[in-house]
Amino acid sequence: MENLKERIAQLEDHIMKKCLWQFHSRAWDRKDQNENILKKATQLLCDEPVELETPLDRCYWADALSLTDSFQSRYEWLAAMSKEDIKLLMQGLKERIDFVTITGSLNAELTDPRY
Question: How far apart are the first and last CA of the chain?
Fold first, then answer.
């Protein structure tokens, strides 16, 4: 379990330093981004089909593709993980990113109804 937390922390650090999509100004935007990009990234990492029906799907896919390319080139341990372990890792990453960018954020603009 400690190894999983360390790996989640590495992926979180990468997202927080290299990805602009987690800086949307409203909580619902961040929730949608986190959910869809990380879901598609999980599918890509697990060699599963990715839905590309709508322009928004394709936008999330483009961010997910860039993210997974970065993850795979930087974190060699990903290649040795099973699909089930990758899914657990990515679910833990999503929970952490949701906390850091939404529920644990002190940014009052995220919940301002006039914004």
Answer: 40
What tokens does 37 get? Answer: 């990009």
User: How many domains is the chain built from?
Assistant: 1
- Report the distance separating Cα 51 and Cα 61, nearest Å: 8
pLDDT at 1: 59
- The residues, ordered by sequence, that sit 6+ positions from 57 with a Cβ below 8 Å of its Cβ are 36, 40, 51
Q: Is the dihedral of CA 36, 87, 74, 8 positive or negative?
A: positive
Q: Is residue 14 within 8 Å of 98, Cβ to Cβ? A: no
Give dist(CA 106, CA 83) in Å, integer: 35
The percent of residues above 70 in pLDDT, for the chain, comes to 97
Residue 93: inside a domain: yes
The model's pTM:
0.91
